C-alpha cells in the first residue's frame, strides 16, 4: 500500500531536525565576531624603581697604555711566524719574516745602477780635466769648458740619486724581518705563513709594558667624570683618573669611550680583564630624580631615549636621559614616579596612544 505524505514526513523528522540544527550552528559561527583578532596586544611591564644611590656602575676593560698594531713596511709573502698570541716578547725580537727573493733582486738592480752612475761620474771628471787643459792652451772655447762642467754636475746628481735608491733597496730588504719595537705582550696575532700582506697591513697587536689603564664606555649624554673607582675581582679598590675621552659619540653603540689611569694593578689582573667601576652620577648633587628600569624598556628610535608608560590600558612615551647602563638595568632621569608601569620588552613595536593589555605578573 503506498505511503501517505504525513507518514513520509513523520518518518524523516529526525533527519530534518539534525540538518536544521547544523545550519543554525554554522550560521552562528559565521556571524560570531573575531574577538581574539581585535583584542589589544599583550605586553610585559615592569615597575619604575628609585635608583637609590648617587653613583653609577659600569664595566671597564683593562688595557695597556700603548697598544700598537704591528705591520711590515713592505709587502710580500710571509715565510715564517716566530710568535703566538699571548706571548711575552722583548724589544728587537723577531716576530715575522717575508720572502726576501724579490727584495734581494731590487738591491742588486739598485747596486748596478749605482755602479754605473759612479763610472759615469769618473768619466765626466776625466773629461772636465782634459777640457780644462785644452782650454788653457786655447785649443777649445770657454763654452766647451762650461758644457764639461755641466756634464760633471749632472753625473754627480745621477750618482747621488742612484746611491739613495740603493739605500732604500737595502732598507726594504731589512724590512722583510718584522721585529718588536718594544717589550710587551702580543694580544693578537693574525699573520700566517704563506699569507701575502701589503705594506702597513697589521699582522699583530702589541701591548707594551708599562702603565695599565681602564677603558670605560659611557652612555650618550653622560660626560666622563674626572675621577672614579675600580673594584678588582679580589675585592681590592683602585682610584681612577681620567686621561682621555673620545670627543665624539660612537655612531653604532651610542657611547663615548674614556681611558682612566690606574696605579699598581696586581699581576693577577690580566690585560682584557673586566672590572667593575663606579662614578658619581651627573646631576645627583643638584637633586635630580633617578629611576631604575629594565634595559629592554629603553626605546631609541631616532627621537632620543624614552620609555613607554602604561596608563589605563594606553601607552604614552616619556623622554628620559640615560645615566648608567648594565647588562640588566638602566638608570635614567625623567618625569617618572615610583611604581609606575613601563613596557619592559618589544618597545620598537609601540606607538603613541596604542591600546595594550598588561601581561599577568
Automatic annotation (TrEMBL):
<dbReference type="Pfam" id="PF25917">
    <property type="entry name" value="BSH_RND"/>
</dbReference>
<dbReference type="InterPro" id="IPR058625">
    <property type="entry name" value="MdtA-like_BSH"/>
</dbReference>
<feature type="signal peptide">
    <location>
        <begin position="1"/>
        <end position="26"/>
    </location>
</feature>
<dbReference type="InterPro" id="IPR006143">
    <property type="entry name" value="RND_pump_MFP"/>
</dbReference>
<feature type="coiled-coil region">
    <location>
        <begin position="107"/>
        <end position="172"/>
    </location>
</feature>
<dbReference type="GO" id="GO:1990281">
    <property type="term" value="C:efflux pump complex"/>
</dbReference>
<protein>
    <submittedName>
        <fullName>Multidrug resistance protein MdtE</fullName>
    </submittedName>
</protein>
<keyword id="KW-0175">Coiled coil</keyword>
<feature type="domain" description="Multidrug resistance protein MdtA-like barrel-sandwich hybrid">
    <location>
        <begin position="72"/>
        <end position="206"/>
    </location>
</feature>
<dbReference type="GO" id="GO:0015562">
    <property type="term" value="F:efflux transmembrane transporter activity"/>
</dbReference>
<comment type="similarity">
    <text>Belongs to the membrane fusion protein (MFP) (TC 8.A.1) family.</text>
</comment>
<keyword id="KW-0732">Signal</keyword>
